[in-house]
Each structure stands twice: as C-alpha cells, then as structure tokens.
Amino acid sequence: MFDLLAVAYQADLTRVFTFMMSREASQRTYPALGIPQTHHDVSHHGNQPDKMALHAKINTHYATLFAAFIEKLRTSPEGDGSVLDHSLIAFGAGMSDGQAHSAYPLPLAFVGNAGGRVTGNRYLVAPEWSPVANVWLSVAGMFGSRLERFGESTGRVEL
Known about the structure:
This protein has about 160 residues and is mostly helical. About 30% of the residues lie in helices and about 10% in strands. The chain has helices spanning about 1-10, 40-45, 50-75, 130-140; strands spanning about 75-80, 80, 90, 110. The strands form two sheets. A two-stranded antiparallel sheet has the order 1-2. A two-stranded antiparallel sheet has the order 3-4. Helix 1 (about 1-10) packs parallel to helix 3. The longest helix is centred in the middle third of the chain and has 26 residues, at about 50-75. The radius of gyration is 17 Å and the shape is globular. About 10% of the residues are buried.
C-alpha cells in the first residue's frame, strides 16, 4: 500500500490520504515477525517484559514500513525539491498504552516541510492533556483554514 501511495504522490494523483495499517483491537498475528499472538493480546501486556518486547517489535515493524515510504518520497524529485518537501505526512497510533486503554500521551510524528510551511528537525510537546484535535486544528490553519474549532479542540498548538 505504501508503494501505491508513493506512486500516487509522485504522479500527483493525490495530495491527501488516510491509511490505517492496523487497528489496536486487531486479531491479526505476525508469524513473519515470530509473533503468534494477536496484536490486541500483545498490547494488553500486563507489564510483562516479554509481551512488552513483542509489542515493541510490532510497532518497530510498522515504523520501518513508514520510514521506507518516507524515504521514497524524500528521494522523489518534484519541482524545487522532493515530494516529501512539498508534503506533510502524519504517523501515529490511536493508543499510547494498550494495557490501560489510554490515548495519553498520544505519540504522533509529522514528516515533511508542507511546501515550506514547516521548518524541520524539531521535537514538540503539546501542553499537558491537549486534545489531539488541537494539533489537527493547527495543521488546518497552516493551510489557510479559518476553522475556530475542530472536534474536541480547545485551541491551537504552536507548530
């Protein structure tokens, strides 16, 4: 799927996509990774180091797939830069801690320069207990949207 998305971006067939690689409640197993348990069961690790290591292995697998996709965009020339230079790609999860069913703090990564709207290589931490909708409201503002609220947003996050 990432290969198809890279081609779609390279051919300028789209500039927007949503792609869910896996649901946290998935009953999928990962035999190719040596993990016979389901993703959901592993996410309920009970603070057992062996299950936590398996969960980290699954997350590493998805992060590796994402990194290869980003590299394809980075090495695809477009205008005065690369496809990645002209994009803003978000990568994250729906849960921070599956054991506790907690979405806080929610790990998110944004990659790309958004056509010069973002200057890179920064690490940002949103204010304590900020709704993730604040981030999306801020992203919409970067692209000229005049939205005042989005979902459960309570304000904007400095990007």
